[in-house]
Design a protein that fits this description.
Strand content: 15-25%
Oligomer: single chain
Number of helices: 9
Number of domains: 2
Number of strands: 12
CATH topology of the largest domain: Rossmann fold
Amino acid sequence: MIPAGAGLPRHVPRGVRPALEELLALRRHGAAMRRLLALDAVRREGTRAGAFRNQGMDYAESRPYSAGDDVRRIDWRVTARTGRAHTKIFRPERGGDVVCLVDQRAPMRFGTRAAFKSVVAAHVAALAGWAAAAGGERFGAHISGARTRHVPLGAAEGAAAALCAALADASPFGPALAAQEPGEEETLERLAALAAAEGPIGTRFVLVSDLAEPEETLERAAQSLRARGELVFVCVRDPLELRLPPPARYPLTDGRERLVLDTASADVRAAHARALQAQRARLQRLAAHPGTRCLALCAGEDLFSMRAAA
């Protein structure tokens, strides 16, 4: 977590739908978001960089082989000397492109304080684009929702503005954006595969979601992205998902159906505690992989207070 007084701005998203003017206004905070996402940091040692060799990568060292490492990176010389499989680690000479994957599916359109999770995610995604612009890099984005929306990799200024428009506009998109026909909402795994196929070696991926999908699905998505570069998860949650309100019966609705959350029920409170513990453990396991970071943010909080997931 960035320490207090580090000179970061404050911004708390609000509402049930992102406003274009608010997303565009975040441009002035691009440099601050760049620091928060550590886009200028040297690649972590575990980045899956075997395929990066001869593409701007410098050999750093070798470490013991871990399950899932690219077999093309095996250091046969060290392996033969030690009798234990080792993997070569490479560091990129410079930063690559930035690609954001942002979850705007139906479960993200939920909120009990300040803003829907989808609105918070939209603001984070816009900031990722402006962060790329602050570094003079290329930027691209993929939006998962009723339609899969795609902002092609290009100069970050224009691409970030296109992403803002896509996030704020639920109507059909212009020629700059490719959209599939309405239908079943795209999975994060499929979205990650699309992004990985487009992103060149060394791309830095930012995936913004509530990460509520099964761990196996998230891990497959992460593998696709880590194979091309580094990955930052930004987990957006609602306060209700972290702490139940005082015991009572609370009506909830999605605009079509209604239900009652009975927090006086011991079974409900126990199930909530188990779910929260399981999610925390899942995020920690995802972040434990080399080349991966996991940040967390709660709706109603200052965006720049996002911290390592725990």
